[in-house]
Amino acid sequence: MKKISAIMFNLLIGVILATVTGGGPLAAVGIGGALSLIPKPSTNILPMAIQVEIWEKDIVEGLWADNAFLNFAYNADQYVLQGKVVHIPQAGAPANTVVNRTELPAAVTQRADVDVTYAIDEITSDPILIPNADTIELSYNKRTSVTEQMRKNMYEVSALNMLYRWGPDKAERILRTSGDAVTAHLPSATGNRKSFKLVDVKKAQTQMNKDNVPSADRYLMVDAEMYDQLTNDMTANQNRDFLAAYDEKNGILGRIYGFNVIMRAQVLRYTNAGTPAKKQWTGNGAATDNAAALAWQKQSVERALGDVKFFENIGDPTFYGDIYSALIRLGGRIRRDDAKGVLAIVQDSVA
Hints:
Layout: H1 2-21, H2 25-37, H3 52-66, E1 74-75, E2 80-81, E3 85-90, E4 114-119, E5 121-124, E6 128-131, H4 132-137, H5 142-166, E7 174-176, E8 181-183, E9 192-194, H6 198-210, E10 218-222, H7 224-232, H8 236-243, E11 252-256, E12 259-263, E13 268-270, E14 290-297, E15 301-316, E16 321-334, E17 342-346
Helix pairs in contact: 1-2, 3-5
């Protein structure tokens, strides 16, 4: 019935136009027929889908921009297989070298090469729903707001997980703070801890020098409280020299005892055991938790980026709206078995 009414309406318009232009009945029919062929706009307009490839690219770029310290590590991206596993062929011990050899024939040895293989971590966001009403009634673009917040949360979790992977757990790779008593600042921690002092950074420098770690590209990451304790321990001249190395682009606040200092809200946390054990930030806090700074040399740690995916389901009929989620596969490790080139400076408790 609607189609017949539309045809009759188009013919009426055709008669009017034909009369105005001086055309006859055939012209009226022709004009009406032509109007019937013009497609009508759809009344069922769906929201435009996100350009998934562009969003995936933005996720990667934002990850590096928000966490510049990830660039201060060996890049193992080329060794990622199928976006999930890192596989690195690694040379074994080199042949022995002798000066003025006296025993002949020389012993023949064979280099035993090994493969380093590890799965990289999968970081995923919870799927989030934007109800259809929100896309129509709200005065701001809720989809943009939601996806931006999703990315920021994933960046933070990815960064903390990488720092956990880089955190050493060998006793000889852990130093303790030595300053005056200060109140514990981790969320669940209670009591007092020894503050972070310049002498603690000096000890880290000495240890790396003894381990024959390259002096270039050394980094020290501290949380906000430990950074405040460190800078309060500086003289005016030390603070001036420290700030001379300020590099906003790379997140470097200064340089002390050969370390480029970086600060973020959270870095590492350890237990208060005889040999402190590192803890994931996703786990529950404890009263005995200790904050820790991380010192490393660029070639002593690595990171590997695998798959980055952005998912969308526009107009889901069971949730009456649009659903979005994302996935990042990002892994890392301490490169040497003896963990040389990496140190954790863990708060010491005060009895």
